[in-house]
Specification:
The complex is a heterodimer of chains A (197) and B (222). Helices cover 64% and strands 0% of the residues of chain A. Chain A is mainly alpha-helical and 197 residues long. Chain B starts with 6 loop residues before the first helix and ends with a helix. The chains are: A mainly alpha (197), B alpha+beta (222).
Chain lengths: 197, 222
């Protein structure tokens, strides 16, 4: 798949720390300046992601704004020990995109009512220091062959079905399935090796 | 050998996208229940996060940020309804509140809509509308009771959320995923001790056995 030479590069670890700090500021004190900084970085990227998924400019604009509103609303649920802001925010964008093509449902109960929000923080840590954990997982991913990473990206980031991947890469459907299975096995193996499991 | 299936890998049997809400629900709920699945899920998520960082940038409208703040202001002055939430509270709701996210949110929405349906002695079923073509249901099985025999037109995955069940293929506990392939018949029975909540995701509509089910099978036998 062609890459855009002018596209930004992966954020440096220091930037990731900064984004996590900004998210916590939003959660802790509804810090609008912090939110604006996050918006400046993420909104244009979310918009690009949505447009590559098929949204036109105004749809992408609207959904990106909704994603950022959700980021504000759910800021208290962000836990830097669990994932980077990029990962967390991407999941919101992925879910939001799906929401917009569904019938609107009007719940009688508001799941975000403070009375119904979970009283415990998200999934308990296994005991590994969070920095180490991120490093271990990242190291496991780095060892994975680029071809397998590209396959995982196509499935989980672009949301392509196996059939779509097969068509685009002109490989048989069965081959795509077995390569994905292999990629997972490899990944699990690397995680076990590096102690991330 | 039961229970070791991981959602991310077994979804490979579906023709669905990994962005399909039913697939997302299954994978993320299992990741919330099991550390080994969570590590794989986190690794894949990291790939997604990195990919988002390397996206090209598309300019937002000039007034986008102020529009977002306006939406936030509107939300925060919106009317909440704590009394309605309190009215629905009770043991039944408490059970749902203890389920892991993301299935918890869907269950809370569904229970206030169509809600639970009796599906047999000791068995209740609730359809979850996640926006997928797949059938997504929350099952509540009392100890010693079982799900009715399904004859399914497609593959079905069942994730144990609380308690445990046993079927022809073995014992499934918290976070375990049972997969039933086309044409197979499974009769899961909840283990003694605790109510078993499970998340079932299946392609196509469920056809129950019984008079109507038998008729359907006669005409679609392969």
């Amino acid at each position: 798949m062609p890459s855009d030479r002018d596209s930004p590069s992966i954020a440096a670890p220091a930037d990731r720390e900064r984004f996590a700090d900004l998210m916590e500021a939003v959660a802790r004190s509804q810090d609008r300046a912090a939110f604006a900084a996050l918006f400046e970085y993420y909104a244009p990227r979310v918009k690009s992601f949505l447009m590559r998924q098929g949204a036109d400019n105004s749809q992408a604009e609207e959904v990106t704004q909704e994603v950022m509103v959700t980021v504000w609303r759910k800021a208290a649920l962000y836990d830097r020990n669990n994932a980077s802001v990029s990962t967390w925010l991407f999941r919101i964008a992925r879910n939001r995109r799906i929401d917009t093509i569904r019938r609107t449902r009007k719940p009688e109960l508001d799941p975000n009512d403070p009375m119904l929000l979970p009283s415990q923080p998200p999934a308990a840590e296994s005991g590994i220091d969070s920095d180490d954990r991120e490093r271990l997982v990242r190291a496991a991913m780095a060892d994975l062959p680029e071809e397998q990473k590209a396959l995982l990206r196509a499935a989980f980031y672009d949301g392509l079905t196996h059939r779509e991947i097969a068509d685009r890469t002109r490989t048989p459907l069965g081959t795509v399935k077995s390569r994905l299975r292999l990629a997972f096995q490899k990944l699990r193996g690397k995680l076990e090796e590096s102690g991330g499991l | 050998m039961a229970g070791s299936a991981s959602g991310s890998e077994t979804w490979a049997n579906f023709g669905l996208s990994a962005h399909d809400p039913a697939v997302v629900l299954l994978i993320e709920t299992q990741a919330a229940l099991r550390d080994d699945v969570r590590s794989v899920h986190d690794a894949v998520g990291m790939l997604g996060g990195d990919a988002l960082e390397t996206e090209a940038v598309s300019m937002m409208n000039d007034n986008a940020l102020s529009s977002v703040f306006a939406q936030i202001d509107a939300l925060e002055t919106g009317v909440r309804n704590p009394r309605k939430a309190a009215r629905h509270a009770g043991a039944a709701l408490q059970e749902l509140l203890e389920l892991p996210e993301p299935v918890r949110e869907h269950a809370l929405i569904a229970v206030a809509g169509a809600g639970w349906q009796m599906a047999g002695p000791g068995l209740k079923v609730m359809n979850l509308d996640v926006g997928s073509s797949a059938t997504v249901q929350l099952l509540r099985i009392e100890p010693g009771h079982g799900a009715p025999s399904h004859d399914h037109s497609g593959i079905e995955h069942t994730l144990v959320l609380t308690g445990a069940f046993r079927d022809e293929t073995g014992l499934y506990r918290l976070g375990d995923l049972s997969t039933r392939n086309t044409g197979e018949v499974h009769r899961p029975i909840a283990e003694p001790g605790e109510v078993c909540f499970a998340l079932a995701v299946a392609e196509g509509p469920i056809q129950l056995t019984g008079p109507l089910g038998m008729l359907q099978r006669l005409f679609t036998r392969h």
